[in-house]
Amino acid sequence: MKKLIAVIALLPLLLGCAKLDVNPLSEGSSENWYADETEITLALNDLYRTYLWDFETNYTTERMSDNWTQRQAIDAFPAGSINSEWSRSEDLWLSTYKGITRANTIINSLDKAAGKVSEAKIKQLAGEAHFMRAVFYSRLIFYYGDVPFYTGYLDIEEAFKLGRTDKEVILRQAYQDFDLAIESLPVSYGSSDLKRATKGAAMAFKARAALYMGDWGVARDAAKACMDLQVYTLHPKYDEYFLSKTRNSPETIFALPRSFELGSSWTAKNFYTRTPGGSSVAQPSWDLFCAYPCTDGLPIDESPLFDPREPFKNRDPRCAMTIVEFGTEHLGVIYDPNPYATKVLNVETGKKVTNKDTRSVDTYASYNGLTLKKGVDKDWSDNNETDFDIRIMRYADVLLMYAEAKIELDEIDGSVLDAINAVRARAYEVDVTNTAAYPALTTTSPEQLRKELRNERRIEFAWENRRFDDLLRWRLAEKALTRPIYGVLDPNDLKDRVVDQDLWFYSQAPEVDENWLPDFSALHSAGTVKVLVERNFDKDRQYLFPIPSKEIIINENLKQNPNY
Predict the structure, then answer these.
(1) Reported confidence tier of residue 412, pLDDT bands at 50, 70, 90
(2) Rounded-to-integer distance, Cα 272 and Cα 326, Å
(3) Which domains does the chain possess?
(4) What are phi and psi of 351, to 5 degrees?
(5) How many CB atoms lie within 10 A of CB 256?
(6) What is the DSSP string of 20-39?
(7) Is the pLDDT of residue 10 over 60?
(8) Phi, psi at 359, each rounded to 5°
(9) Which pLDDT belongs to residue 192?
């Protein structure tokens, strides 16, 4: 496994690999490093760098889910075109094993600090390293299944012989690492802005690892333990939580901070509208838009409250907090993708300006009429940069993981309803006990609760890199990622075929199935919507990622996943 061996810091003799990282400056050499608190902390800090968390950043997995539309382009994963040379799998494999190796090195070197660092501090530092190793191994077994496994040092000969270890064995080790982290880590680090791993983070990630592997009892207990800490609460306002100005919220359990002051920001131009200066390359999908129920809790094809002329009206508040409502102010101008609206109001100047957010004016405006609002504010458009924190675990996820585990265990009680309703009530900005002010769940049917819980996760975590994993673990990818991606007709076709100008978006609600997945085929047959691109997920192979071909070629003991 060329890349795996590279991260073990043993490859200067082999092949001159371009991605070689034999002796990173953050660690020093294993012979003389890890001797004091500063050196160990520097080594640990590397495990918080964003390259090790690529699947959690910048909408990486959203691109592979049914929450995403990008004009008439499509990611390789939903296109069904991935193979053993798929770069995303190669990069994930490399970075994750790099993280594991560095965590192993820290864990196995802490004895050097004995007598120089307090036992309490060594315990905490070890807890961080065990936390990281558990997270990384949990990631690997979810995406790849059985993988190479090691917790110590490997020489070159051993590394070339390393085959795949049963994922259940690795999961047990991950649980042990999480438990050690839970025992060793503090509940908080005081007022520090840096979101280091905490006791609550270890509990929450243990719950996620167990949930992803269908280990419901462990997931339930770990999520409940995190809840019982009573240090996390839901942020009062859903939309405010995702803005760059929101730091250190009591909802955040684990995040990677970014800030302009520290030189850590993100280029945002592709994800906001064209009239204020963005490029609107990608946007939320119609599939996601249809997932938001009406305020009566019913899907749009069942609710009498849905009006295709005003499709945002009477919808779950998270709809307009995630996707910009037509005709409302956004980044200083009125957002209106209606092909008849060639001018819009600049709210700040009070003057009409050319509407670059309709395709009748600008060919590259949103192809489905939608645009992202969640987390978007003026700091995106003033210089095309933003520095919002990368939120990887938050309390809403813990509540819904707890509820899901209890549903799957057939342990439905008041705590299940309370957990889901707390998340839902926050969206409506009402107290959970005010059940008349939001569509509170009261059913105890496992089938209905499962359906509601799964869609609650989708709309709560839209564009937060959670949907893709859920599609894989629920085995819904074969349904969600085999339907076409739809959008608005081209302007001239729309004006020819749709007589009512108020129905330019789509003329009626699509049918929504038991998985809250919309079917636009009837509208397409009627000629009122357009297929932008087809999706072709392959259920016979894509529920597991391919092991990179470079690893297979160099190690005869490493076997490929089926059908790659």
Answers:
(1) very high
(2) 14
(3) 1-165+545-564 (1.25.40.890), 479-533 (no CATH)
(4) -115, 155
(5) 18
(6) --SS-TTT--TTT-SSSHHH
(7) no
(8) -75, -15
(9) 56
